[in-house]
Amino acid sequence: MVEVQPTIPQVFAAAVRNDPASPLLTFYDDASGDRTELSGTTLGNWVSKTANLLVDGLGLGNGDTAAVQLPPHWQTAAILLGVWSAGVAAETGDTESADVVLTTPEKTTTTKAPDRYATGLLPFAMPLRELPAGFADYVLEVRQHGDYFAGQPVAPDDKALDGRTHREVLTEAANRGIPAGARVLIDANAHPDPVEWLLAPLVAGASIVLCANLDAAKVAARAETEKVTLVL
């Protein structure tokens, strides 16, 4: 049984400490041809920038909510982990009560949230050419913030994801049964739940090969190239 750390930020910090330089999350999009590889340190920088945007830029923290309406992607991982590091709860569906919304241009809807960000999830983290009215560009805004986040108090029973606490979500993630230290290839379309594609591997100390629009004909060769030990 995997020992569960009490909060998601602690789980992520442990994953980065374990091997800061090796790939922690490798993202493929077989529709666009995009491949992005992030070490623990690099992903940690994006997470810190996101947390700083939320805390220093927007003044958010414990008790606040971020609506994260994004598909599985390396930017989504950075955003969710940044949200949790900031002590903010993430909601994947509700925008009505959210304090901030982060979404794609295709999913922008009417919301009462005072702060709204869009990202195109483009290769090389390129900014959007056209912004939806009332939205800022996440990629441009987050880059203005520092790579180090001092941290926020986060407790195991704080809300984390869709009304569940850090403790509840991490217990669920640990029960997914991913072997410790695995390198996991994940079909993003088949596993859209962040507990499955992001948190379960992190709890297990595994590294992630996340594949959007996965071409089934490429799975075997990719698994060999990426030294994958488990395919989901």
State the total count of DSSP E strands.
12
| Helix count from the secondary structure assignment | 7
CATH topology: Rossmann fold
Strand share of the residues?
Answer: 15-25%
**Gross geometry:** globular
What percentage of residues falls in helices of 4 or more residues? 25-40%
Report the uncertain regions.
Answer: none
- CATH level-two architecture: 3-Layer(aba) Sandwich
Number of discrete domains: 1
What's the main sheet like?
5 strands, mixed
Query: SSE order in H/E notation?
Result: HEEHEHEEEEHEEHEHEHE
CATH class: Alpha Beta
Separation, N- and C-terminal Cα atoms: 20 Å
What class, by secondary structure content?
A: alpha/beta
Strand order of the largest sheet: 2-1-11-10-12
Instruction: Name the CATH homologous superfamily.
Output: ANL, N-terminal domain
Overall pLDDT: 95
Radius of gyration, taken over Cα atoms and rounded to an integer in Å? 17 Å
